[in-house]
Amino acid sequence: MLYREAGQFKTTYAADQQLFPIRQDRIGVITLLLIAFIGVPLFASEYWFSAILIPFLIFFLAALGLNILTGYAGQLSLGSAAFMAVGAYAAYNFQLRIEGIPILISFLCGGLTAAAVGILFGLPSLRIKGFYLAVATLAAQFFIVWCLTKFPWLSNNSSSGVISTQQLIIFGHELKTPTEKYLLVLSIVVVLALAAKNLVRSSTGRAWMAVRDMDVAASVIGIRLMPTKLLAFAISSFYCGVAGALYAFCYLGSVEPDGFSLDMSFKILFMIIIGGVGSIMGSFLGAAFILLLPILLDVLLPFFAGLFGLPFSSATVSHIQILIFGALIMFFLIVEPHGLARLWQITKEKLRLWPFPH
Amino acid sequence: MSKKIGDVILDLQNISLRFGGVKALTDISFDVREHEIRSIIGPNGAGKSSMLNVINGVYHPQDGKIFWHGQERRKMEPHMAAQQNIARTFQNIALFKGMSVLDNIMTGRITKMKSNFIEHALWFGRAKNEELEHRRKVEEVIDFLEIQHIRKTPVGRLPYGLQKRVELGRALAAEPSMLLLDEPMAGMNVEEKQDMCRFILDVNDQFGTTIVLIEHDMGVVMDISDRVVVLDYGKKIGDGLPDDVKNNEDVIRAYLGAGH
Ligand SMILES: Nc1ncnc2c1ncn2[C@@H]1O[C@H](COP(=O)(O)OP(=O)(O)OP(=O)(O)O)[C@@H](O)[C@H]1O
Ligand SMILES: [Mg+2]
């Protein structure tokens, strides 16, 4: 009986409406934050920061953005990477063109620009649903990348739209080491993840889910479909935009429009499918899974191949990766549409009863 | 019955509604008085649900006028009905499947919440207090409908009868002045029907809510209605007190013809 809510009686509605109503969840989240902020910087290597942890956090943020739109508000989008591109290029341009603008404000403006573009491409959702909407967001994906390549002004006239991001200076201090960048990304992601959690447990989130589950009933209750859907597009794109800015400034340092490809949009979509549609935890698990699996396979596959004396090229490894991804995605779509987060939930429910089976 | 029935608050005049070639409603007039239980009956496909959809703005009739509290109503979108304190339940349960009972009922109060999404994100200002204040109201509804034990259950997991009850709860949470119920007792067993009847009568009695009810169970209709209107093939064939309607020749014929 390690994990349970029995005995934790809520005597007020306030107590029942806390961010994490179950004590063990609270302890878990606080422990995780302590490890992330203090433990990890003490022990992780540079490689871990720049190749694994920073991209993981950034993709978690992007997946969270997509999950708000698709998982909570029920509007399928295939344009997440493009909205990341908008955030990245907008943040770059704010830095470039406004003298002395703080970097965090640039990130914020990058997010807001992405939100505005998101609203624009969300307009079709007022008329079309599901598959057709997905096609409309696909248009956003191609159109935005095309714009960034086509208009040299956006990349300060660099060839083929490549931008090299400016220095990261916060309160007069330049962030150079991977550890510092990691801490910056982590702080932003934690704040935005908490904000997302607050949004989805409030009436904003309930309106999104209502529109997702049954739009006629939602409107009869008094929910206006247009502002509700557009808000979801705006906030989702804001999250993707900030993720894009972080991707450019804190991860790669130099990006090109083609880097924000349809492949990347799909990658983010797979994160929420595998992690769990309509769950913040799901975005976290999905991002971890999709980013870590290839690394794991990179190590494991040649190892097993060596064991059996099979010849193994890196091309084979990446083919097998694709196979495994495909199989997993089918598995989750068919067997567990709520993804890893749901499996986690079931484990928790079991734990609640443990050691008694019933 | 000792309750006071008030003035006409909703007056429909010569309503006609077509879907392409299908005439769902033809030249129908009837009114609803404050605090009454007004039933709409008729065989399958008679146009009963369409009538409710016209009242709360989901369908827009091609002809006819609607007066709400004496004012002629312009074309109205569904969300505006909620602002005018009209709530409803659906013939096919229209709950939000992915949400808990509590959250479903909380959405019923959405028009009464004033805080915006920034306050929600920061859990700041009005957001937190509103959440508490409305939770208290929602708990009253939950107590009233005797569904305390399933508050946190996802509605998809509930049996049919309870889902219907939760849907009523979501409508009641809005504290409506008029409640439109589309076959709230369909598919229920006798016991569940009795409970539902009791809730409807209590709502009407305690809160003075005006109720427009569609129901196939004649026993129930004749028992609890103040006035009944009868539709058949989109036309009105009877209107009046339950006893008058029961003895109306056209009504008897329509029902026998439809095999009821
Ligand atoms: N959205 C729609 N599009 C096309 N036709 C419709 C629509 N809604 C209703 N109809 C038609 O209007 C007529 C009346 O339907 P309605 O649902 O109002 O009947 P009802 O009296 O509620 O029947 P039931 O007892 O089966 O619920 C039917 O012929 C139906 O096919
Ligand atoms: Mg009907």
Put the structure in a nutshell.
The complex is a heterodimer of chains A (358) and B (260). Chain A is mostly helical and 358 residues long. Chain A has 14 helices and four strands.
In terms of topology, how is this protein built?
The complex is a heterodimer of chains A (358) and B (260).
Chain A (H helix, E strand, L loop, with lengths): L12 H4 L6 H21 L2 H27 L7 H18 L5 H20 L7 H21 L12 E2 L4 E2 L2 E2 L3 H23 L2 H11 L1 H7 L3 H28 L1 E2 L6 H14 L4 H29 L5 H21 L4 H15 L5
Antiparallel strand pairs in A: 1-4, 2-3
Helix pairs in contact in A: 3-7, 3-10, 3-11, 3-12, 4-5, 4-6, 4-10, 5-10, 7-10, 8-9, 8-10, 11-12, 11-14, 12-13, 12-14
Chain B lengths: L7 E12 L2 E12 L3 E5 L6 H8 L7 E6 L2 E2 L5 H6 L2 E4 L11 H7 L9 H6 L3 H19 L15 H14 L4 E5 L7 H17 L3 E5 L3 H7 L2 E6 L2 E6 L1 H5 L2 H9 L3
Parallel strand pairs in B: 3-8, 3-9, 6-7, 7-8
Antiparallel strand pairs in B: 1-2, 1-4, 4-5, 9-10
The complex binds adenosine-5'-triphosphate and magnesium ion (MG).
Structural summary, described in words:
The complex is a heterodimer of chains A (358) and B (260). Chain A has helices at 13-16, 23-43, 46-72, 80-97, 103-122, 130-150, 178-200, 203-213, 215-221, 225-252, 262-275, 280-308, 314-334, 339-353; strands spanning 163-164, 169-170, 173-174, 254-255. By secondary structure, chain A is mostly helical. Chain A has one domain (36-353): ABC transporter involved in vitamin B12 uptake, BtuC (Orthogonal Bundle). In chain A, strands 1-4 form a two-stranded antiparallel ribbon. In chain A, strands 2-3 form a two-stranded antiparallel ribbon. In chain A, helix 7 runs antiparallel to helix 10 and helix 12 (280-308) crosses helix 14. Chain A is globular and about 60 Å long. Chain A starts with 12 loop residues before the first helix and ends in a 5-residue tail after the last helix. Chain B is 38% helix and 24% strand. Chain B has a domain at 1-85 and 178-187 and 211-260: Rossmann fold (3-Layer(aba) Sandwich). Chain B is globular. In chain B, the strands form two sheets. Chain B has a six-stranded mixed β-sheet, sandwiched between helices. In chain B, strands 2-1-4-5 form a four-stranded antiparallel β-sheet, covered by helices on one side. Chain B is an alpha/beta fold. In chain B, strand 7 (178-182), helix 7 (190-206) and strand 8 (210-214) form a beta-alpha-beta unit. Chains A and B meet through helix 1, helix 7, helix 8, helix 9 and helix 10 of A and helix 2, helix 3, helix 4 and helix 5 of B. The complex binds adenosine-5'-triphosphate and magnesium ion (MG). Adenosine-5'-triphosphate is lined by residues 19, 22, 24, 42, 44-50, 91 of chain B.
